[in-house]
Specification:
It contains 23 helices and 18 strands.
Length: about 575
Amino acid sequence: MTNFEGVAPTLSTALEKRGYTTLTPVQSAVLEADANGADLLVSAQTGSGKTVAFGLAIAPEVLGDTGTLPHAGEPIALVVAPTRELALQVNNELQWLYGEAGAKFATCVGGMDMRKERRALTAGAHIVVGTPGRLRDHIERGYLDMSALRTVVMDEADEMLDLGFREDLEFILGAAPVERRTLMFSATVPKQIAALAKTYQKDAVRISTVTERQQHTDIEYRALQVAPNDRDNAIINALRFYEAQNAIIFCATREMVKHLSARLGNRGFAVVALSGELTQNERNQALQSMRNGRARVCVATDVAARGIDLPNLDLVIHADLPNNSETLLHRSGRTGRAGRKGVCTLIVPHTRRRAAMRLLSGAKVKAEWGAAPAASEIIEKDRERILNSAELAEEIAEDDQALATALLEKYSADVIAAAFVRSVKSKLPAPEELLQSTPDMERERRPRSNIENGVWFRLNVGRKHNAEPRWLLPMICRAGHITKRDIGSIRIFDADSRFELAPHLADKFMETIKVNGTGEQSITITRIEGNPERGNRRPPNKRPRHGDRRDGGGPRRSNRERRDSRPPRHNTSD
């Protein structure tokens, strides 16, 4: 039997049954002598085993000196988590940890049936786990009696403040007994958390297992530079290249979640969506599909995915760059958990390269920069996977031997092997052909001798927008359904850019742009009449400004002429 020093016997048994042989650094730290019975302010990286850590830390208050649980009545311990998913996840973790001790639990989370929660609280519970808003509701209605509470745990405290739960947290902590133990667990300890700890904790012991923000060694970071309107295709190719058992894709908006999950579903990926507009039941079903293997890709917003822990999550894709370095680390921390290796990829349009570099620098993360996996690379990967297929390495079962022999008698080995290859490939979504988006494109922008009397077009992005030929060229090609050989010179100015097309393509190009747009919400393309070196000209069909007499009503008058034509002003002060 494994001996976990400082852990109650019933919890040691649960850990051993769960497959634990050693404790993680944060789990060991909360069991040190100076932490025993004290308020704790703990910071540890995502995936370090924080839930089990605070489960072990609160054992003296929950189990008491005898190591046994009293009859379930008013709750002894309260755990507050920022989201429904994380609260339910924490509840599941604590249930197996305290299962041997016979602990009773109650959950109080938004989106669930409040009447069932009230009945569970009335029946009695040793540990209550919930979200700030719903816990406050139960306290205000008198359903949750805090009088017997011995300890309060705030999990992911920094996220709760980010989500605007400060008032609810202060209410809950204010309603708890003064003589209690308060534990705050957080990935980081910003000023807000420090201030909250100072107000509601007593001489808290500070525990940090995060070395001055070192890169998570179990996560491999990749930054994939793509053409701005090639993002979806790059995501598809990344999924196909890595073929992770489970993957999560982070998006900035619900609309992007809908779009990307629909696109991936149409391409044959087993995908689920996770966003704030889903009901709790729908979100639970989505997560369960990932856990039981019916789905392998989860497309989610940050809020919906906060704190969730999916098994065998080997790939994280940032479809939209996060807003800050903390969010980058939080998203990425969904993989590389509990000693398992993971890959984190950032899809970086050329227009966002500097922003991506700032994020990585702020997070003190080094990423390998490169292009998204090409179709040829994915095909080669598929070849390797087929040759090393686990199915081919298995011994032939006795029941299958007769059929295998019969197949060899009827068909040649080549035919059978080809059928196996087709069977495998039929289950794989086809990779996408990506636009060439390398620096080599800069060489393609030189004027071509075969373009005479070229027609010029204007893009509303220039040097100050980080415009570069290597991402402008593929965007123009995709938007206008042309090839790079159809484009002549590209000239980049401070506020805009110009490019040249052969005359016979100009009208068709503009018709395509009018119907489909450019593929980028902030970028427009307009046709230029006259010299492309001049500044923007007012389109000929634009309505004349007031006083502009170019419509045949006479020449335009100067400001002085208009001023002199006004009637004289009379002094009426007399």
